[in-house]
Amino acid sequence: MLILLNIISFGIFFIWNYVPIIKQIANFILNPTIAPLLEWNISLGMTLLVIVLTLFVTILQKYTVDQKYMKELKKERKKIEEEIKRYREDREKMMELQKELFPISFKMMELSLKSSMYSIVFMILLFRWLDEFFVSKGNPLIFNYFNWIVFYILASIFFGSIFRKLLRLE
């Protein structure tokens, strides 16, 4: 299911300019909702948008990922990583431990990506719309320094770490 949604969302990303209905739907929804916020104050509007989206994604992750299982996997991964540090000199033992670590890391990634299944199509539409919005405004800088995508990434990491702590997310 996740692979199908990724294919759909990347398809949307690439056919945005060739299938007008996709852009029209995004404009119909986002022009009256997000555009006024960004036109009011580009820096504060973008900050509020990042806060809301990051909170939404974090809450989604909290309720779509088995937090107990994730915590167990993290403990197991940490234990194996500590053993790897102890056996740094024994290459064979280290390789064996790394083989044990790979399935755990893969499972953790799989669990984390599960929540993206519910938001990826919306986020791709939003990012394409934001790109067009900022291009139409002459690519203004957020806080006179960052372009919108760099600001989004940095701010979502910052606010995401705060929300993850507040919501006790693993």
Give the tags.
170 residues; mainly alpha; 79% helix
Please tell me about this protein's structure:
With 170 residues, this protein is mainly α. It has one domain (2-166). The chain contains 8 helices and no strands. It has helices at residues 2-15, 20-30, 35-40, 42-64, 67-86, 91-114, 120-136, 148-166. α5 runs antiparallel to α6 (91-114). The protein is elongated and about 60 Å long. The mean pLDDT is 86.
Major β-sheet annotation? none
Low-confidence stretches: none
- Sketch the topology as an H/E string, one letter per element: HHHHHHHH
How far is the N terminus from the C terminus?
Answer: 24 Å
Q: Helical residue percent?
A: over 70%
Taking all Cα atoms into account, the compactness measure Rg is: 20 Å
What is the structural class? mainly alpha
Molecular shape: elongated
Topology, element by element:
Elements: H1 2-15, H2 20-30, H3 35-40, H4 42-64, H5 67-86, H6 91-114, H7 120-136, H8 148-166
Helix pairs in contact: 1-7, 4-8, 5-6
Quick summary of this structure?
The chain is mainly alpha-helical and 170 residues long. It is 79% helix and 0% strand. The protein contains 8 helices and no strands.
